[in-house]
TrEMBL record:
It comes from Sphingomonas psychrolutea. Residues 24-273 form the EAL domain. It comes from the Bacteria. This is Ammonium transporter. Belongs to the ammonia transporter channel (TC 1.A.11.2) family.
Length: 287
């Protein structure tokens, strides 16, 4: 009897695995078509200066308009693209599209997310330089967001690459700081221009004392190392107030603006938000 039920469990497991594998394979096939059919789009989310409420740049976040499934989240397809190597071609599309936006629109500065595999790929720096040069875009208008995981495996190579990219004029941000391994020594060893405090800490900093303490510590640490500190996922006035009082340089989040198609890009934040950040009402600010 036990043997039987064991076998049944395994059959169920195997059927489940097969289904997962099939789904993943279907997604991979669809991803190849998506690149050819132009189903990807970059949405832009504003990054706002805490002191003045001015929009200084935007983060490019990829969206997939799937012909049958509708809008697919990057959380669902970026990992699949990573695992199958498709992230290299997709990542190049992101760089090209970001450069097109910088060349053809009013947008001054953009951040793009670079996946670990893309960053480690031998051609990355050269392809990036070629695309940027071809588009006629100054490298200092493009910021590369990387996560700590790219620093772990071969930190000597990562350091050389980051240094070379910075010499070319690109700026580098450490994304999702506070998650993953978060070795503090990374911050002093690598030449980041900015660190982005992960949403997980930001969303609790208004209520939870421990999250508030961590946010404080990251701001102090980043600032004393000469890096800009950016808070991700700011959703409430309380969080914005706490962050700006704590000396956070920039903010990003639904409160300040959601990721939007380029055609409906906001160029300023709402008056209410601006008033909270600057501590002044609209009338006072006009004087
Ligand atoms: P990320 O780079 O950390 O981006 C921040 C994510 O938080 C985005 O999710 C953004 O839409 C979301 N977000 C922003 N403000 C708020 C807020 O106030 N509240 C909440 N709940 N969420 C907020 P999204 O667009 O789904 O992207 C998820 C992740 O997918 C990104 O995390 C990034 O790691 C990856 N990704 C997105 N676009 C690209 C891309 O072009 N290339 C690569 N390699 N990865 C990308
Ligand atoms: Mg990011
Ligand atoms: Mg992030
Ligand atoms: Mg993330």
């Amino acid at each position: 009897h036990a043997k039987n039920s064991g076998r049944n469990t395994f059959e169920v497991f195997r059927a489940g695995m097969n289904e997962l594998i099939e789904k993943r394979r279907a997604l991979e096939v669809d991803m190849d078509a998506a690149l050819l059919n132009g189903e990807y789009e970059l949405f832009l989310q504003p990054r706002v200066l805490a002191r003045t409420a001015e929009i200084t740049s935007y983060e490019a976040l990829i969206r997939w308009h799937h012909p049958e499934r509708g809008l697919v989240s990057p959380v669902d397809f970026i990992p699949v693209a990573e695992a199958s190597g498709r992230i290299i071609a997709l990542g190049e599309w992101v760089i090209r599209e970001a450069c097109r936006v910088l060349a053809e629109t009013e947008v001054e500065r953009l951040s793009i997310n670079v996946s670990p595999l893309q960053f480690r790929h031998g051609d990355f720096h050269q392809r990036l330089s070629e695309i940027v040069l071809e588009a006629g875009v100054a490298p200092d208008r493009l910021e590369l967001e990387i996560t700590e995981s790219v620093l772990i495996d071969d930190d000597q190579r990562a350091l050389m690459l980051l240094t070379a990219l910075k010499e070319d004029g690109f700026t580098i941000a450490l994304d999702d700081f506070g998650t993953g391994y978060s070795s503090l020594s990374y911050l002093s060893r690598f030449p980041f221009d900015a660190i982005k405090i992960d949403r997980g800490f930001v969303s609790n900093c208004g209520e939870e004392e421990s999250a508030a303490a961590i946010v404080h510590a990251i701001i102090h640490l980043g600032t004393s190392l000469g890096m800009r500190v950016v808070a991700e996922g700011v959703e409430t006035f309380e969080q914005a107030l706490f962050l700006s009082r704590s000396g956070c340089d920039e903010m990003q989040g639904y409160l300040l603006g959601k990721p939007q198609p380029i055609s409906c890009l906001a160029t300023s934040v709402s008056e209410a938000v601006a008033a909270v950040l600057t501590g002044l009402t609209a009338q006072e600010r006009l004087k």
